[in-house]
Amino acid sequence: MTALPPGFRLAGYRVEQILGRGGMGIVYLARHPELPRSDAVKVLDTATAGPDGEAFRARFLREAEIAAALDHPHIVTIHNRGTEGDRLWIAMQYVPGTDGARELDRLRAGLGLRRSLRVAAEVAGALDHAHGRGSLHRDVKPANILLAATDGRGDERALLTDFGLAKIVDDAGDPTVAGTVFVTPSYASPEQLRGDRCDARTDQYSLAASLFHLICGQTPFPGATTAEIMRGHLADPVPRLSSRAGDVPPEVDAVMERAMAKDPDHRFAGCGQFVAALTQAASTPRAAYAPTRQRPVARPVVAPPRGPVPTAVILAALMALGVVTAAVLYLVL
To answer: Could you tell me which residue ranges the Protein kinase domain spans (predicted)?
Structure first.
């Protein structure tokens, strides 16, 4: 996808600079055509639309409206959306600061338990708000958790962004569509990788996997290939977070194991309930456990895939692992 140059005008917005690139497009800082502010404008890569471009365009516009209806202090606000030529764009609240993935790159060893729990509580509130309105995120990951400084003391506010793949749950008016769906393997739930039905507990799993990474600086199932990462989510037990981070008491491990259960029925009822249980477990006095600084990893550690991976790649990896033996259609629900 070719980037738009500074000064380019899109639907009245004047492009100032690139804020980031993702698997679905490019995000720009762009000057609002009328108001004295700059917004974050995401332009989607039309190559992701596949052969049925008109259906993709209609879904995009509808999903943007779903996201725009979410009003929560920890969800990035959607200001507008539209099309111009063959470009699909969505204008969002610009959040100066950083995000979870960049902080992990900067700190290497993770954000630590206390800071990560504060971030998780705010993101969990955002997800429970969205779930209560029938909306799923489907791609919760550190890169989609924005961290905005709010005052001179260094306090920060977490905001969840990119509800672009969200769909209304059980919307009978929207026909089920078989096509390309993007997930980020390092944080994807087993049901997403299998192509099963997703619900609010899917986002809870991805939040837990993201929190695991934020706390200790490692993804729960590292691997040298996408197939190895996926095998971990599908078949391996959840690793003990306390063995990878010295400030994490063993009581946390059982909570993480439940939030990342292979069977969604074994997870918590909501994201807020998960983070509340985790916070209580993390409050165990240090004298009650013997923390370790060792961080054993069963597989070679490589940088997790940042961008989402299309279904075709997932299917190939699953077949290579022997998880499926026939074509699997990932249904966009």
So the answer is: 13-279
Measured between alpha carbons, how far is residue 94 from residues 41, 100, 154, 178, 300 in Å?
9, 16, 19, 33, 37
* Residue 17 main-chain phi, psi, to 5 deg: -165, 165
Residue 50 falls inside a structural domain? yes
Structure tokens at 309: 């991976």
Q: Are residues 172 and 45 in the same domain?
A: no
What pTM, to 2 d.p., does this model score? 0.82
- Catalytic status, residue 155: no
Domain assignment of residue 2, yes or no: no
Q: Extract the tokens encoding 146.
A: 């924005």
C-alpha–C-alpha distance, residues 48 and 24, integer Å: 7
The encoded tokens of residue 227 equal 């197939």
Does one domain contain both 291 and 145? yes
Q: How confident is the model at residue 28 (pLDDT cuts 50, 70, 90)?
A: very high
Residue 179 Cα distances to 18, 51, 294, 328, angstroms: 29, 10, 43, 11
Instruction: Say which of 128, 139, 162, 203 is annotated catalytic.
Output: 139
pLDDT in tens, 58-93: 878 887 888 889 999 999 999 999 988 888 899 999
What's 124's domain CATH number? Answer: 1.10.510.10
